[in-house]
Amino acid sequence: MTDLLSGARAELDRLQHREFELLRELLDVRKAVAAQRVVIDELIRANTLPPINRLPNELLAQIFLLIKDERESLASVSRHWRDMIMDIPSIWSEINLDNCETSMQLKLHLERSRQAPLTILLSDDEPELLDIIIPYTNRWHALWILGCAFPVLNRISSLEFPSLEFLFVDLESDSVDLLLTMYSRAPALKHLYLEGLDDPPLPFNLTAGQLGNKFLTKLSLVGTTDSWEFPRESIHFPVLEFLTLRIDDPMSFLEAIVVPKLKHFEFSEEYGGSPICRTFNGPRSKFDNVHHLVLAPSVVGKLSENALALTKEFCQVFHGIRHATIDMAYLLPLFSPYRQVDNPDDYYSSIDNWTCLEILEIRDFTSMRVWSYKRFIDWFTKHTNSGQRRLHLKLISDDTTSSYPVILNASNASRSTLYQALQECCASVELDHIPVSSQMFLSTSAGSLLLSPPVFETGLVGESDIAALTQKCSAQTIDTLLAQFWIL
């Protein structure tokens, strides 16, 4: 009997111990269930947020800076966006007085910008608003004076601009003295952009010493300068690195300046008409440090004859060019061959002056506008065969919908396309936003349609070839052929 009682008690102890273990396990499972529910709830909440709201605040702030002109609309999207936009001073650092309807709005704008450098845009004299921003001239980083500059310069020229680095002025003769006064009070100025130099001409009392600057690194001039009469090498810009000219007499200005640090030169034809073309009369060595030249498209459309002639002169003035960026309209004066005086049997092109050239970029490239296939290829072939450095060529176009793609590979292995010929002559050939075709061929069988332009051997297509095809192809086909290939 004693043994039975002892066994029963032992079994009860075991069951009670097991009950305790199960209860403890149940509590652990319930805790795990509760924790898992929290995880699920957080995932559900996260998935309901738009993807942009999952970005880190730092990245979202950079996005807002790229589209800060839409800050009012962005601030109305959500409270989170509004709080961020109101708390980023750089978003409020650009102030266009034309967009500030009231003085209260401008003051609020300045308050939100805190201590950020300011970009100011003025289009006319607005005394009330101008009075509000004048106390902040120590923060002016960039200033655009659009339209008539005299009323604005008359108000601000005697102030100090310790942080001003960029100044744009639409200049007239009655504003020159005021501009020079302001010019002298902006010790940090790095980029000066002067436009409208011709209405009327600059006064006689503008001296070369006043125009020079010890700290300017970038200068842009747009207008008519044929009335400027500066002595040669009289305007000193000791640290100028970038020079952009859209003026009618660039050679006179190039003769007048001393720019030992100049690296980048850009030219384009001015609004008012044909530029003055004449030979550069000065030491060629003064521009030995210029390694990048840009020939930009004309703002008036087709280039004038004088602008094309100036291109040849620039090739001699800036003979140390390593990187050239040219609009396609300049190809003709650059690559056209002419006989050398001392060696009539040899041909020379203006681009041959750039003996250090490494990179050539051709912008607005389209096969529909190419003027001479054979001359273009012949120059590259001659350049390579002469043992000179192979160029890195980049062809750039914004017309991605062109009906005249660049052919990459010929359908016949014995024939070559423009692209293949350039690859053989260049260190590299890059096509940027240019439509291409991997292979093209022509079918002229009875009743068939033109599938794509044909691929001819380099330099072997003449007018007689096209005339023969006119007997078999439609007028549209012939137009395509003439646009696609360069016929001598």
General description of the model:
The protein is of the alpha/beta class. Helix content is 35%, strand content 17%. It contains 16 helices and 19 strands. The protein has helices at 2-47, 57-66, 71-75, 79-86, 103-113, 127-133, 150-156, 176-184, 208-211, 250-256, 305-317, 331-335, 373-385, 418-425, 463-469, 475-484; strands spanning 94-96, 118-122, 140-145, 166-170, 191-195, 218-223, 235-236, 242-247, 257-258, 264-267, 292-295, 323-327, 338-339, 347-348, 359-363, 392-396, 406-410, 428-432, 436-440. Strands 1-2-3-4-5-6-8-10-11-12-15-16-18 form a 13-stranded parallel β-sheet, with helices on one face. Strand 1 (94-96), helix 5 and strand 2 form a beta-alpha-beta unit. Helix 5 runs parallel beside helix 6 (127-133). The longest helix has 46 residues, at 2-47. It is flat, with a radius of gyration of 35 Å. The termini are far apart. Residues 203-208, 410-414, 440-463 and 476-488 have low confidence and may be disordered.
